[in-house]
Amino acid sequence: MHAEWGRAAATATSPAAIGLAGMAMALDEWAAGATRALFEKAVAQDGFAVEAKGELARFQEGLRATHEGEPSHNTVLGHSYGSTVAGYAARDHGMATDEIVFLGSPGVGVEHARELGVPPEHVWSGTSGDDVIDHATPSLDPRDFFDGEDDHWFGMNPSDPHFGARSLETDPDGGHTDYWDRRTSLESMARVVAGVEKGHP
Question: What are the residue boundaries of the DUF1023 domain, all occurrences included (predicted)?
């Protein structure tokens, strides 16, 4: 878990590194399910996401309620099974956030970004080229075997264009745990957190 907090800190400080300092931001990197042990327990089951979704939604509400001064630009980053938790929270409770980012996701509980309670243009998803998630988490529902869609354990792959999210640029040779160690994906996340489009600093 200490490693996850380190990754969140790296993402939160990246805006300064690319000239985006001085903006009011809040970052919540939801690491639920990020550890190997929890991932192994969660294989093809959504029980942990069901249990954690309310806690995440309440946490986001608390950030809004306790923030003082100019409105902050809030972002939820969900990696791996943490993206499933974030998707379930947005779907079932709504989340007080401006942006939702999914990374290396096994599915987020919906078939389209518009079902997440935020405008689809504020939903982002990226899967690195060497991330095993695309091959390791195919849907186990026989009804999905021949429908031609990119279905994962917990719904359509949010990085599939048909999902309706915006594509988050990642590294073509990055693996499942490399998103916070590669410049391309790290800067992409930082720009979403800062609310700044690429090419428009």
Answer: 26-141
